[in-house]
Amino acid sequence: MLNGPIGIFVDKNINLYLADCYNNRIQLFSFGAYNGTIVAGNGASSTILLQCPSDVKLDGNGYLFIVDQQNSRIIGSGPAGFQCIAGCTRTSGPASNQLNQPVTLSFDRYGNLYIADMLNNRIQKFLVSKDNCRSYNQPKFCSNATWDANAITFFESKITAPEPQDIFTNTNNTVYLITRDSGDIFITPEQNNDTLTLNISHSSKSRNSLFIMNNNDIYVEASTADYRIDKWISNTTSLIML
């Protein structure tokens, strides 16, 4: 039984990984299966303690990267098991090496790590500092990969809006951000320091997640208020309610 599921990830074999927040664990549902297997957190052997994980990603080697929300840190796995890779100070806070209830994570094609740092009202970018065998577009890291302990603030609330909820980086390294209350999407291309705003607040203002297709169409979850998914057509203002 799930309790407060939040973030999901689907791998190339259509297996579903799910951040089961209030059960403090990550579950794996193999394709076609209705029963999950605990792969990290409460109930898994030889793993790490989690407190309300809110997002999970896999790299090209099948290693897990987890947002451990209530512990304000990011966990990564590898051949040696699980370890903290960002926000590893053991306390939450606003410093460049701290997080405060992060929500989601994303990698760009270079392996840099982006974190939606919710209660600090910012997006933090942790540069990959040691990794000689990463692949492009789909992250695949060496077992000794590390990230800088201190992050660069990529977005902050004075540019966007408070409480960032989800972040998505496409294969062109364009970064998409959605915030909880504004309902707008903030877009920053890799070669452009300007942040574009897609104003979608005339619809629901309570949004939690988004997904970008290869053709740049945007899918936005609006279930908190309207119990639906919205599709925004690339380069238009057209909305399709799904």
Give short descriptive properties of this protein.
242 residues, mainly beta, four-stranded antiparallel β-sheet, 22 strands, globular
Task: Describe the overall structure.
This protein has 242 residues and is mainly beta. The chain is 0% helix and 42% strand. It has no helices and 22 strands. The strands form six sheets. Strands 1-2-3-4 form a four-stranded antiparallel β-sheet, with no helix packed on it. Strands 5-6-7-8 form a four-stranded antiparallel β-sheet, with no helix packed on it. Strands 9-10-11-14 form a four-stranded antiparallel β-sheet, with no helix packed on it.
Quick rundown:
By secondary structure, the chain is mostly beta strands.
